[in-house]
């Protein structure tokens, strides 16, 4: 399978399992409708409707596209790491039983691990 190449900050966030520096990447699409896809393989991961605002690093989601994201237990972290189900690319972390979302889940995604595809509606 052919994968997309990553810039150095993106590789550091996903391959080396670091969270990118706060505000290190442009969040220009936060008010747009679309989907977030895996930067490596292009698989759809999150709908923009499931994203929510936060003052922390992000973006954050409270749901995924079905069977697109898999949790991985990390013995060194209190939260589960999340990876793309299709290519195992490191995406961020999952926190459960938190009351900050509608569904009690918080997917903290490394913005450098995903790409946003805007959906434009034509009437």
Automatic annotation (TrEMBL):
Task: Return the InterPro entries for the record.
Answer: Met_Sox_Rdtase_MsrB, Met_Sox_Rdtase_MsrB_dom, Mss4-like_sf
Q: Which residues form the MsrB domain?
A: 1-119
Q: Name one GO molecular function term.
A: peptide-methionine (R)-S-oxide reductase activity
Per UniProt, the keywords (alphabetical) are: Metal-binding, Oxidoreductase, Zinc
Cofactor requirements of the protein: Zn(2+)
Which Pfam family, an example, fits this chain?
SelR
Q: What EC number(s) does the entry state?
A: 1.8.4.12
The reaction(s) annotated as catalysed by this protein in its Swiss-Prot or TrEMBL entry are: L-methionyl-[protein] + [thioredoxin]-disulfide + H2O = L-methionyl-(R)-S-oxide-[protein] + [thioredoxin]-dithiol
**Superkingdom, natural source:** Bacteria
Membrane-traversing stretches? none
The record's annotation in Gene3D superfamilies points to: Peptide methionine sulfoxide reductase
Protein name as annotated: peptide-methionine (R)-S-oxide reductase
